[in-house]
Prior knowledge:
Oligomer: heterodimer
Strand order of the largest sheet of chain B: 2-3-8-5-7-6
Helix content of chain A: 25-40%
Radius of gyration of chain B: 34 Å
Number of strands of chain B: 22
CATH architecture of chain A: 3-Layer(aba) Sandwich
Amino acid sequence: MSSLSLISLTSVAKAYESSAGPVVALHDVNLEVGQGEFVAVIGKSGSGKTTLINLLTGIDSPSAGSIRVGPTLVHSLDEESLSRWRGRAVGIVFQFFQLLPSLTLGENVMLPMDFCNTYPPRERRGRALDLLAQMGIADQADKLPTALSGGQQQRGAIARALANDPPLIVADEPTGNLDSRTAERVMEFFAQRVTAGKTVVMVTHERDLARYFARSIALEDGTIVSDLR
Amino acid sequence: MSPRWQKLRGDIEQAHGRLLMMVIAIAVGVFAVASLSTAYPILEREIVRNYLSTNPAAALLDVDVIDPSLLASVRTQAGITDAEAAGHLTGRIELRPNEWLPLLLFVVPDFGAARIGTVRLEAGRWPTTADGIVLERTAVALANTAVGHEIRVQAPHGAQRSLTVTGTVHDPSLAPAWQEQTVYGYVTPATLRVLGENPSLHTLKLNVADAAGNPRGAERAVIGAADWLRHAGYTIGEIRIPPYHHPHQGMMISVVRMLLVFSVLTLILSAILTATLTSSLLAPQVRQIGVMKAIGARSAQIMHLYLVLIAGIGVLAVGAGLPLGIAAGRALADNAARMLNLELASRSVPVWLYGGQVLIGVGLPLAAALVPIRTAARRTVRDTLSDFGVRVVGGPGRLIRWLSRLGRRDPAFVLALRNMVRRKARLALTLGLLAAAGAMFMTSLNVKAAWQRNLIEAALERHFDAEFEFAQPQPATAVLATVAAVPGVRLVEPWSVAAASLARPDGLRIVRTYPDGGHGSLNLEAVPRDSAFLSPRIVDGHWLSALERGAVVNEQALSMFPTLKIGDRLELVVRGVPAELAVVGVVREHLTQATVYTWPERFAQATGESGLTGGVRVALARADGRSSPEVIASVERALAHSGVPVARSVSQAQLDRALGGHLFILIFILVVMSILMATVGVMGLGSAMTINVLERTREFAVMRVLGAGAWTIRRTVVGEAVVVGVSSAGIALVLSLPLTMVVDWIVGAAAFGPELGSGLSAAAMPLWLALSIAGAVTASAYPSWRASRLTIREALAL
């Protein structure tokens, strides 16, 4: 674990308007995450976990406070700058994989490189195949997502998150739809990335996976109630 | 190919049906615009070219004597570029024994040397003998004859003679013979002698410099030449200064312009449909767009992706619609040319027009699709990832709640009603599309109804079945007795008609009629005091009182004198004699010439024809297609037996044919345009229903979980489409009213002087309602089937 801070949340709050009045999702959250940390975000449904990672990735903006990821003040970016930054600096893994159904697995992995123009076009397929090989599914590169199992899809989604070699990987319950054996394999992949110097922040409900995390942050009613290392 | 384009390809494969629909919709719009914008410049150019190709006379002067020295002198007058002697007279041609049509005879001294108002020999040869005649090509069928055949002709003074048709000519300066129910013939002066008429020529045709570009200057030159002739001792009769364009040019160009506006409207509707279809294309892509943005795609990149798709669709649509539209436009120009008796020298249109059509065909859909694409591309990642279909903001409105109560026992109906208003912007687009198409459809039927109403009213206003005009005025009492004695004649009245012109301070009699003497003429008519043939509909002032010495004018005459009002004195020249008549009233009449009505005594005073009548009008005991011609022929025989030469006889049936031929093609094109728009509208409804189904897939799954069968789901979708269709029909009805007024005004003003008058088709609304419902059922058939076929597992997994 590195002591260099990659993520810094200062007095972050988030409230949503609803027909019943404002709903506070996060309240005065202060958080520092170092480079190379493997952080679990745990908590009950409605505790603010997804809101927290949405703020981290710029998917959502805070009602108050500041968010810094690396040198970037995320809360100050507009939507376009956020897209550009996210493509290069953050790899996102969704619970439901969210691979584009009309693209093959390989093409899905190449897509972030294409959007962000991070690698020359001729190198993209090779890099995608490399990443898929690291996930053990290079032979599935030319298949459409519907032809793959959930585990294969999720590994493909992780490969896609790594496409632009971002320093931060954020995953929202990536093992939630996988059987325990596949979930273990997915966690091992994340652990390998952490070893390679990446920072991983993961929302999870599964206590069985706790051993993989170096740090565990618990949320309750929008507040960090524990931060165990 | 890069992954993003691969994704686009995948999207295209997935949504090929909707994309095809988009191509068809835009192609329909491009087709409509291309066809009309092709026909318009061709017709506008060719109608002018055809007319000018005859080197039409700028003026025709009736002069007592025309000799070569006069012609030479007139040519030297200021502004006059050429002068030529000619003649014209009105006779009759016998179609069948005692069944006659008006014959307009143009007298040409030398066909080979004619320079002004020329005609082109199309078949046969010029007449070389005195009994030869050439006919205008559109008159041959009307006269029921052919080259080489003989026709029976009656000269103005009554002499009858057979002439041989030696050839046919094309005269594009005249309205087609079948439209005017008048046969046009061309003879030499020698033929006049054969017909017992004076062979000398009395019409002086003048050409002036820049008659088309400077009509005022042209008129000044003509008046100058006429003044010179008077001072030189010649007697000048009527001076006819035609408007220097084809008699139907105004009508045709106005109508084509109006259709062009409608075609642009169709393209705009297609573009709106593109926007709707683009929304339907993007609806299932919302999450994917969110994911793409989450992994680094910028809004501009996503917009670029879909704009390229729409541009490609535009190019395909232009590729399909433009050639077909150009072909249809040329066909339309061909038909219009046939209708106007024109020859199209070229069917080319400016190249920039094609470029413009390509730009519009591609650009307009792009512009329309920009909004939904921009909206989808600019949605935040969070918003797109949390999109689970349509959300309901606020409850249903009062109307929907009230309607829902009506169908309380049918949840599918209630759901259909409430679903309809969930996406208000989309609903507005769909309703707009269908309503515009419906309004157009109803307008075309309304215009047709208005035209038919005009025909019926015109027929009802003419309470007589035939009209006979004599070569010379005849003693009224004797003629009336002769005609009244003919079996089958119910009523006969004396009717005298004289051509009139507005008196001028310089004493010249200038009228604005064409060489055919019909278009733009003004008549003074003597109305029998106890006439049963006229039921004047006063729109201003009053009808002629018992001691009246003034006159009543119809609206057509009023439009010739824009400043004329009740109480003003109308200074006319009738048969060369000034006549001053106070205008006491204005009447509305349908499809008649400009007419000034006065009592017979005042008419006689103006014309010096006391106790005489220039013609009679006859009502028959039985006016039907079989007996009418027989009775009319009997009247002809009786008059001939009494030594009364009939110069012209027109039956109600002939008049109906002349009037009915004018508007058929316009109504046909209007209906075709409305069908095109309806097609676009139904496609719009289909696309809206497809999006609705896509967006509510999860809801349908939930309905299935709750026990709804496939039939219930289908009924909900089809019900929603039908409710939209029925609602659009109501809006279309409202929209069609002002649209009908505008089109009626354009058609009426352009074609017939006063407005066509409002006429609403009783069949229009029910017919469109039925079409809307049928269209709605058709449009929703596939989406409803698709919705009902989704398995719960598939639906909830989306």
